Amino acid sequence: MAPSAITEIITEPSATGTLSLQPIASKMAQRPKNADGSALYPDYLPFYDPLEKVDDLGHFEHHDVGHRADPKMPNLLAKATKVVNLSPHVGTEIEGVQLSQLSSEGLDELALLAAKRGALVFRNQDFGDIGFEAQKKIVRHFGPLHVHGWAPHPAAGSPEHMVIYDHKEDLRVRRSWKGRSPVQWHTDQSPEPQPPGVTFICMLESPAAAGGDTLVSSSVQAYKSLSPRFRKRLEGLTAIHTNNDGVSQELKNGDGAVMRRQELVQEHPIVIVHPVTGEKALYVNPVYTKRVVGFDEEESEYLLRFLFDHIAKRQDLQCRVRYEAGTCLVWDQRVTNHSQTLDYPAGDRRHAFRLTSLANKPIPAKIEEDDGECAKDFARVQLGLC
Ligand SMILES: [Fe+2]
After folding, report:
1. Helix (H) or strand (E) holding 94
2. Are the C-beta atoms of residues 206 and 325 closer than 8 Å to each other?
3. Ligand 1 geometric centre to CA of 187 (Å)
């Protein structure tokens, strides 16, 4: 049998006799780029205003639209041509559906499916072309929109649009990862009093060859995969979440630092319940979760380190989302953790925007019952540790 063209390319020896991959590079598919090197979506270039201030939203009633959804999902999946799970526990890719065309009922079903599968991937979307207001109207269906404390938004306005941008002319994000791993598992903005639920990332321009994927892990399965006795120990515990590391990082930008909002500190249950599915999920992450309430420092570090490692190392509970221009990732932050990869060449352009709906105050898996033991320990009472 004659060798295929690709076999000939792979085995072609270089002048030095070693295997050369150069011929492959010339045949590799490249993602869309402007010939002059300019951004494909200039209206979405990042804008930083150090003087900009935004008030906190405050408490709001949240009614999860997933409650209204038809579990058969006839509106969401009416035009779907293919539905493929990215891994058994998290992530589903749906072909043939335009997010911009979904009815109110279809968006309800989108919320339910995101809660069940954690992350949903839609390719070849026109979502990036329908304009700021239409985009916000769709994501606002799930809850009020979040405004980030310092991340850029488009120059034309819309502070709710969080621009994700990395390019040789703007290395602000890449510099912030200098000297540390860019892989940091988290749920976005967990220190909010009512943290995010359904969230959209719309990819506008991807690195030329490959890279810039998002890693997603299931927090529901991260919880379920623990032993029943260990799970029982976690229920009722709470932990402190804060964004003070991010604030410190942003302040390194000096006069150009953006600080729209106050620093956030919040106590949340370590195991939460999703309001629609009733599934329990582990709700800690190494970016924002700092200590377990009521534990001594070493105990807290010990437990959180185990839980963070558990989330990061259980690749059987994860999926990986690859993007092209026009790919939208829709996910439910309450049942997942995620991380960037930042694995493509420095200077290459990766450009996206995120719209984030806020949801319910995290629901504890169980109300902790104070057994009174701490109050009997005089030393702990004197030090205010109960
Ligand atoms: Fe994130």
Report:
1. strand 92-95
2. yes
3. 6
Is residue 86 a part of any domain in this protein? yes
Nearest-CA neighbor of 49 among 188, 146, 159? 159
Question: What percent of the chain shows pLDDT beyond 90?
Answer: 81
Residue range 35-50: average pLDDT?
95
Copy the structure tokens of residue 260.
């729209």
Q: Determine how many CB atoms are found less than 10 A away from the CB of residue 299.
A: 12
232 touches 366 (CB < 8 A): no
| Model confidence pLDDT, tens digit, residues 341-382 | 999 999 999 999 999 999 999 999 976 557 787 888 888 888
Q: How far apart are CA 213 and CA 335, in angstroms?
A: 19
Q: Is residue 193 part of a domain?
A: yes
Which range marks the domain in which residue 185 is found? 31-382
Lowest mean pLDDT among 3-17, 123-137, 248-262: 3-17
pLDDT of residue 40: 96
- Which H, E and C letters describe 140-199, residue by residue? HCCCCECCCCCCCEECCCCCCCEEEEEECCECHHHHHCCCCCCCCCECCCCCCCCCEEEE
> Is residue 13 situated within a structural domain?
no
Residue 355, token pair as written in the block = 């719209």
Which residue(s) pair with 196 in the sheet? 358
55 alpha carbon – ligand 1 mean position (Å): 22
- Distance (Å) from CA 48 to ligand 1 centroid: 19
Domain assignment present for 26: no
Name, in order, each residue with C-beta under 8 angstroms of 223's C-beta and a sequence gap of 6 or more. Answer: 231, 234, 271, 280, 281, 282
Neighbours of ion ligand 1 (CB under 5 A): 188
How many whole angstroms from its chain centre is CA 351? 15
Ligand 1 centroid – CA 215 distance (Å): 10
Average pLDDT over residues 156-161: 92
The mean per-residue pLDDT over the stretch 229-246 comes to: 94
Number of domains in the chain: 1
Q: Which H/E stretch holds residue 47?
A: strand 46-47
